[in-house]
Amino acid sequence: MRDRERPPGKDRFAPKSGPRKGRGFEPRGKRGGDRPPRGSGDTVVLYGWHSVTEALKNPKRKIRRLLATENAARRLTEEGFDKPEPDVVRPFEIDRMLSPDAVHNGLLAEAAPLPEPELDELPEDSLVLILDQITDPHNVGAVLRSAAAFGVAAIVTTARHSPEATGVLAKAASGALEHVPIVLVQNLSRGMDELRDAGFLLVGLDSEGPADLEATTLRLPLALVLGAEGKGLRQLTRQTCDVLARIDLPGEIKSLNVSNACAVSLYAARRALAAK
């Protein structure tokens, strides 16, 4: 994705007239907009302390504009974040750029997207996640956070039927977006075939899988495949997996939110791989 320079003299965050439409923000009428901010393809919106500060620490992330309240700007200085220098604004100036329930902690950044690796660039001994049409940005953000915690090399998903890596997703990821790259493919089953050709074992998580994940023989490189909540894995995705496995749950409820299932699966996989 190309990084386009902002025309000279243009100020997207003019405090007297409110945020300008486009390039990352959608106005919400008198208060700002009814929808969370979305990137425009060449712009990523980050808000919240962890999301923004992890981006500031990431040398691969280009920050185009940084907004901070007085308290947040002071905290940035105290914690050694001296570049770029933020534009100090009042809290309501950030509030009106976001949905009413967004918690921004006094920080908002406009940034360039991170580089998107190709499938053939993934490490030969890596653990990756494949997401089959998981569209809820809160769930994908939570999956990213677990992925970062368990050393996942990348998340593979389709260019369509997936949320943008901006706004709500970035906030839910709590900084993990800076540590786990997202690989976008046009066709998931073909992407899975490409990973198999590269030596990956494709394990689909399915509540009706024939074997418990803990009892499944796992090896690196490994790809765990997760389906959308409620729908699960699509038929072609199931057929493309090498193995289908389930998470055995001893309680009365036999299913988990997809982000929780992801965390449990990663824990079980890492334990199994470490035992070899």
UniProtKB/TrEMBL annotation:
Q: Which domain of life is it from?
A: Bacteria
Q: Name the keywords, alphabetized.
A: Methyltransferase, Transferase
What EC identifiers does the entry list?
Answer: 2.1.1.-
Q: Where are the transmembrane segments?
A: none
Q: Which residues form a coiled coil?
A: none
Q: Where is the RNA 2-O ribose methyltransferase substrate binding domain?
A: 45-117
Citing just one GO molecular function, the answer is: RNA binding
GO BP terms, alphabetized: methylation; RNA processing
The protein's matches in CDD domains, at most eight in alphabetical order, are given as: SpoU-like_RlmB
InterPro entries, A to Z:
Alpha/beta_knot_MTases (IPR029028), Ribosomal_eL30-like_sf (IPR029064), rRNA_MeTrfase_TrmH (IPR004441), SpoU_MeTrfase (IPR001537), SpoU_subst-bd (IPR013123), tRNA_m1G_MTases_N (IPR029026)
What are the record's GO terms for cellular component? cytosol
| Span list, region Disordered | 1-42
Please report which protein family the annotation says this sequence is part of.
Belongs to the class IV-like SAM-binding methyltransferase superfamily. RNA methyltransferase TrmH family.
Q: Tell me the protein's name.
A: Putative TrmH family tRNA/rRNA methyltransferase
